[in-house]
Amino acid sequence: MRQATITLLIFILATSVAGKLMAQVSVSGNTESQERLNTFVKHKMEPPRNLKSIDDYCIPAAFCENGDGFEDFIFAGIENLATGCSPDGYGDFTNMQGTAEIGMSYTAGFKSAFNGLMVSMWIDFNDDEEFSEIERILTNFEITSYWVIVETEIEIPGGANTGIHRLRIGANYYQPSSPDPCAVSNYGEWEDYMIEITGNPTYYNAGIVSIDMAPVILAGDVVPIVTIGNFGIETASFPVTLTEPTLGYSSTIEVVDLGYGQILQLEFDTWNISAGVYTFEVCTYLTGDEVPEDDCATHSFACTEQPRQKVVAEIYTGTW
Q1: Is the CB of residue 295 less than 8 Å from the CB of residue 240?
Q2: Which class does domain 206-304 fall in?
Q3: Which of 68, 61, 95 is nearest to 80 (CA)?
Q4: Using one digit for the tens of pLDDT, what is the confidence trace for 97-120?
Q5: Under CATH, to which class is 51-198 assigned?
Q6: Would you say 228 and 240 are in contact if contact means Cβ atoms under 8 Å apart?
Q7: Cα–Cα distance between 159 and 204 in angstroms, integer?
Q8: By CB neighbour count within 10 A (0-12 exposed, 13-18 middle, 19+ buried), where does 19 fall?
Q9: Could you tell me which of 140, 130, 120, 102 has the C-alpha nearest to residue 232?
Q10: Is the pTM of this model over 0.85?
Q11: Poorest-confidence range of 97-101, 168-172, 282-286, 302-306?
Q12: How far is CA 285 from CA 160, 196, 293, in A?
């Protein structure tokens, strides 16, 4: 197992040589920890790696020289085995291509030299050279064992566009890999491939992505914030309505020409709320929506008259 409890005595000496910060690290009584700390400090002391682009795709980076990356990756006909650490933690394997059909599930297999890696996967279905939240088909899947292939099932969504697209996987050690497919990670690895999508896509599907409100807020003026998305491949216009029956609140926003794969955060009309617990429902109303299951979402929240307070220090003054 990777995790262990050890007691170390660590000395770090930093000096400036020719304008560059150099460091020496020593660990008492543990050779393996000495080597890992040496590479860690070297990694931290180096300046941040600039994001380059290939065909205008962002190129992320990570530190995988100790084995914190992908040894094997298997998915939909792609088999990339025993690859080791890619330079700067990014591997361009776009010469390798898989094939997957819309609505079908495929086994994804990952092997690493360490457990605890959090893996996410994106496919650029609309070929805009960006990996959006809607295009993420695997989110923070944990590799629970090392040096064995750990598997999970991934379904190709109905909103996938047919054709050949870029696929990206990212792994981050005990940290989410999902927030940013362009990130520079302390430990992990990124890899790009190509995949051909076949089948019949969903043309019209708008739905709720998230409700962006805290579960506890101050009473008074409240602005509901919701993120919606276009999961179909056709540009769509539709109303979005939020209702709260207890207060008789209702607000509608007209979304116009939301493009394929795009998301949009909406701020509804302000309403004044007293202390209490409330639940509202928000729904998209797209004519011809082929997937009604994601059209509506509910959210419960509490309003309080006073902010939560925490005593962080006590200061005494006087004469003694």
Answers
A1: no
A2: mainly beta
A3: 95
A4: 999 999 999 999 999 999 999 999
A5: mainly beta
A6: yes
A7: 9
A8: exposed
A9: 102
A10: no
A11: 302-306
A12: 21, 32, 12
